[in-house]
Prior knowledge:
mainly alpha
Amino acid sequence: MTDTVKGPASYFPSIETKYGRPIAEWNHLIHTSPLTKHMELVSWLKSEHGLGHGHANALVAHTLAEANGK
Length: 70
């Protein structure tokens, strides 16, 4: 039986396909950004990298949760 991925990570395959970058690269961009607030990062990914809101939100939520040990 295969475990179904849930939460923000469920968006990762479509993010990699649509935007042509691995999730590790998006995580690195988020970590190295001078921005720290969730919605600032989401807006930045949308405006500077052309991500849709749902994809940007999923990346930021997952990256920040990992950074906080969640």
